[in-house]
Amino acid sequence: MSDFQLYLRVGFDHITDPNGYDHILFVMALCAVYQLKDWKKLLILVTAFTVGHSITLALATLKIVRFNTDLIEFLIPITILFTCLLNFFRKTEIKKDNLRYFFAVFFGLIHGLGFSNYLTALLGQAENITLPLFAFNVGLEIGQLAIVAATLLISFILISFLKVKSREWNLILSGAVAGVALTLVADKWIF
């Protein structure tokens, strides 16, 4: 297995790992207001998130940016909760998503700092981190797209076959994710 394949796999496994479910929850929260027909908008949104976390992941891994790990671990569930709150007040028809794109990039910056500790530990004292960093980010993106696909498939089944209204699905998914995010915030409140 090449280094690229190794770090691609590590990135994919990191985002899809059930033990790191905060990132899975964030991607699910991004998906809550979308249906299968909106896949292009959602792809752009998730890629905007990837751009954000790729920037800070690179900066932190290169030790250009330093941060308080406890603060980042506290802010990650806040980003999830905030995304769910945006979903609660979303109109049924999605017109312009500029604000959502902005928040996706901004929250990606925060999540990238969360990913960086893991990647930095893996890289150790490696001299050239460009290829591993790129491969890790590609793996993260592929993992996120797998989460998006699964969430959109569930949404499609519920809305198309079980006749759940899209607004109700948004509230159910966003409410469940917000509930878990609130527990994560409470767990990390004291840092």
From TrEMBL:
UniProt cross-references to Pfam families, sorted A to Z: HupE_UreJ_2
Chain segments annotated as transmembrane: 43-65, 71-89, 101-122, 142-162, 169-186
Keywords: Membrane, Transmembrane, Transmembrane helix
Protein's UniProt keywords contain Cytoplasm: no
Keyword hit for DNA-binding: no
Protein name from the UniProt record: HupE / UreJ protein
Taxonomic placement: Bacteria, Pseudomonadati, Bacteroidota, Cytophagia, Cytophagales
